[in-house]
UniProtKB/TrEMBL annotation:
Transmembrane helix among keywords: yes
Pfam families noted in UniProt: BPD_transp_1
Residues annotated as transmembrane: 21-45, 78-101, 113-133, 161-186, 216-232, 267-290
Signal peptide range in chain numbering: none
Cellular component GO terms held in the UniProt record: plasma membrane
UniProt keyword annotations, A-Z: Cell membrane, Membrane, Transmembrane, Transmembrane helix, Transport
SUPFAM superfamilies associated with the record: MetI-like
Subcellular location, record wording: Cell membrane
UniProt similarity note: Belongs to the binding-protein-dependent transport system permease family.
Protein name as annotated: Glucose/mannose transport system permease protein
Membrane topology annotation: Multi-pass membrane protein
Transmembrane helix keyword on record: yes
Amino acid sequence: MSSQGKYSSRHFWQQLLPKIVIAPSFALILFFVYGFIAWTTYISFSRSRMLPNYNLDGVRPYEKLWNSLNWQVALENLAIFGILYIVICCALGLLLAILLDQKIRIEGGLRPIFLYPMALSFIVTGTAWKWFLNPGLGLEKTMHELGWESFSFDWLINPDMAIYTIVIAGVWQTSGFVMAMFLAGLRGIDSEMLKAAQLDGASSFQMYRRIIIPQLRPVFLSAFIVLAHMAIKSYDLVIALTGGGPGNATAMPATFMYSYTFSRNQMAVGSASAIIMLMTIAAIIIPYLYSELKEKKHE
């Protein structure tokens, strides 16, 4: 075989081998992710109840979904949790990042402490905070034993306040991760620009307000995408911390979907709620991906 033939054969296998390696993973993703999305979409238009029923029922499952009081409550809880979760995580993460950006001596010890909660699963976080906030076991009981008999913290069992316990636990777990994102953004800002601003007499507050924070806009956007995605699909934290209760005071779309699909034998309605959640997440992520790809094409 000529050297040119050997080269073309080697080039052919170099091009083909990566495709062969990736093909099994691609096929599995195609089937187990996109295949089940398509199946769930079909079920959401069917007459399925306890078991799948492939007879179509039009948009009636979606009508039942939007007429359900439990779904309305779940959306209201998601709005409360999502807004507070995103805003507090971003604010706290930015403040912690600014603190660590001051080159303090104990930065190396503080970063692992702030990031540690993110290494835990939401099940562990929810269980730990459930013990801590339980009036008969945690904070309230400890304060009573210390002599503060009038102290009361019953948010976990108070239907009006229980949703905020989920916010507390979620912020505790995720704010360190957001801090790391902002810290990376702060460390990427051109120091020469900051030195020039200092020479012009700008105060630290002015530099953060007019130079540093505006340049962190991509980090804010990335943090929003990540946090919004986590808020919409929140399930394990809610189940571990409150179980969706008291009553349905902390029910979320994800808990609604599981309950209607597997407990209430209304699979079509549960599938419809899953599709609504998927469309909401897609409405957040797709524009972000489009803008990122568009910027890379222009570079």
